[in-house]
């Protein structure tokens, strides 16, 4: 399996691999490695080589993964989504693909918070299901549901607090934000309506109007 994502490559390594391509057909291995090395610095060129790799070996996830990343970086969001889904068929690329496609729809595709949350929602639920110890899935779920409905189950917040990775600056920052919202009483308990059918278990909900990307509390 190829290493996932963006290790720094010396310029000499890039030039050597490109030199190979000048004199003969590169084949899948050369094309996918060129895509991997160029995806951060030259995503348009990386996309070209990733597409060649996919055409040569469409069953291999690595080509789809780097085609997805380079498509994301060149703002071809639907194409990126398609190839992230194909990369997810390989368990080695599942975690990275889920995390990146969620962030793409929520934060990078230029959608409204609600639209981005809706596009990301099925991937978020799969991230939580497949990787239940990863706090990122729970963080994304709170953000997306807050943007879509303005309310988040209290248990979801507790789930994130239990799993937050403080070494991840995004999770650590979000946890601090939640704590500040509690101090300022911006997170309010909202009980289900009394009109709910009899026998249905009441579930506490937290109003997350203050969630970034959601409606702000008045």
UniProtKB/TrEMBL annotation:
Residues 197-209 have a biased composition (Basic and acidic residues). Residues 193-218 are annotated as: Disordered. It comes from the Bacteria. This is Tetratricopeptide repeat-containing protein. It comes from Thermomonas hydrothermalis.
């Amino acid at each position: 399996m190829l290493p996932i994502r963006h290790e720094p490559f010396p310029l000499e390594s890039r030039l050597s691999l490109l030199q190979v391509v000048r004199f003969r057909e590169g084949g899948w291995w050369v094309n996918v490695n060129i895509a991997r090395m160029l995806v951060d610095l030259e995503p348009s060129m990386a996309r070209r080589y990733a597409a060649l790799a996919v055409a040569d070996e469409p069953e291999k996830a690595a080509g789809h993964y780097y085609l997805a990343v380079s498509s994301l970086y060149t703002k071809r969001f639907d194409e990126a989504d398609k190839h992230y889904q194909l990369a997810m068929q390989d368990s080695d690329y599942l975690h990275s693909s889920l995390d990146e496609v969620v962030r793409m729809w929520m934060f990078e595709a230029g959608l409204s918070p609600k639209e981005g949350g809706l596009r990301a929602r099925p991937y978020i639920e799969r991230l939580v299901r497949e990787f239940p110890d990863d706090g990122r899935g729970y963080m994304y779920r709170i953000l997306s549901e807050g943007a879509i409905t303005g309310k988040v189950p209290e248990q979801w917040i507790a789930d994130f607090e239990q799993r937050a990775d403080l070494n991840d600056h995004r999770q650590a920052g979000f946890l601090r934000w939640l704590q500040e919202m509690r101090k300022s009483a911006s997170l309010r308990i909202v009980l289900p309506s009394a009109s709910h059918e009899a026998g249905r278990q009441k579930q506490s909900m937290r109003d997350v109007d203050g969630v970034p990307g959601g409606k702000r509390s008045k």
